[in-house]
Please model this.
Amino acid sequence: MTAAIIVALPTDAAVDYGGGVTDCASCVVRNRAICASLDADELALLGKLGRNHRVKAGHTLLWEGDDAPVVANVLEGVLKLVVAAADGREQIVGVVFPSDFIGRPFGKESPYSVTAMTDAEVCIFNRKSFDDFASAHPDLQHKLLRRTLDELDRARHWMMLLGRKSAEEKVASFLLEMSERLSGQGCGAGTQSGFELPFGRQQIADILGLTIETTSRQLTRMRAEGLLDLPSRREIVIHDRAAMEAIAG
Amino acid sequence: MTAAIIVALPTDAAVDYGGGVTDCASCVVRNRAICASLDADELALLGKLGRNHRVKAGHTLLWEGDDAPVVANVLEGVLKLVVAAADGREQIVGVVFPSDFIGRPFGKESPYSVTAMTDAEVCIFNRKSFDDFASAHPDLQHKLLRRTLDELDRARHWMMLLGRKSAEEKVASFLLEMSERLSGQGCGAGTQSGFELPFGRQQIADILGLTIETTSRQLTRMRAEGLLDLPSRREIVIHDRAAMEAIAG
DNA sequence: ATTTTTCGTTGATCCAGGTCAATGTTCCAG
DNA sequence: CTGGAACATTGACCTGGATCAACGAAAAAT
Model:
């Protein structure tokens, strides 16, 4: 379970690993990422520590159990956080979108793998440098704390889903949450009922603690009952949101 | 799902609700709680905001969904964090021990209920006052961030257990984790193999996402196989730790 | 355009763990 | 010490979701 980190570390700046230099001022997630807590001077300082980097779909940025030398902000794309058992069983324990933060600041090995589900772009920091910078910038740390508290709330509600909900309830809950989070991504104001999932059936199963077959059957049944439409592999259109919420519980 | 908060709020200091005044300097968790980040002056200031309070086993300190007006440190006892479904199904999403932090700082309603599993003593703060104090004390906030990151790691590994492990693996993992956390409590240096759980079978089931019957059967079977002993209702003695770890995966 | 590969659906069957029910055990209260 | 309540164990049975297997459909490669 060991792998080379495929990114340029800031300390290796003499060599060009292909990581683009960061220009925070024009960053697409400038106002949504934790960096939003910084003023222009601080931002310039942080910018020197960060390197933009592209990750192809399916590639892994951090490996569970490895010493994690980097943290990052997501600029574009969707990545999954995965905890795996020795025999290959996988549980997706988090899904991160643009402006979300990746990695484990302040010591410790990475408690999970981070893998791109779509082609992605991330702004990477050497962990030690980031830790030092964060320690010196309480506002940044405050943002990070709020984010971590939110993530913890989300994780705990997902524990309820994993431990106590039926397959039907799991799928309904999942579709509603994805509908919300994905519409939060784009510019659309309200929650639209149609959306495109950034991943396939197996990954839905790994999020819900189900098999791919059960996941597929639940979706097919919901379509048969008129709750939703499946125009293509990854598109979902929820017809009866109220009914879906009733099922999700 | 609404209930009166049964504690004295600092702002009502004119009235005695029975909450004891806090003396941080002599606090039993002084060096382990987040307060350890503060110097004597800061501690005195925080002490004015806090009130010690006793909670009887089974009583609930915070209710899921209510506006949560307080946060707290645990001084003594064990409490559970619970997410419940409308039909009564419960999932325990966290267990807190002395020196652990309770509550949801920085806005929002409480995402779960907090209920004492044993008689407990907590040091309570008005949330707003605590938020302000924390915002003004980066070291405290740093401690809180580290704790929250640790909790998040723990929660995510618990998600793997809930979503992907068998009943046998769940019980084995649970016993090992409890063995560690409970020995961390006492003064014993190493991890002893015998310990007393602070809760009953139903609550183990609610932690593992199982029924009480399945939990009981797994324990009985493990005893029959010589893996452990069950000297009394709440006592566990692990005989073959290596085997237990192999099962936990 | 055709082959190959990957991904998704559907069916048949099985079994881990849930459900229902009875019994045993521990712990208080009186 | 006794009766009862709460908790735990055990048994019989059932079912939701896993597993095994085949097939279909879309995308990627040639």
In short: Residues 1-18 of chain B have pLDDT under 50 and may be disordered. Residues 166-167, 210-211, 213-214, 217, 232-233 of chain B lie near DNA strand C (CB under 10 Å from a C1'). The CA atoms of residues 36 and 168 of chain B lie 39 Å apart.
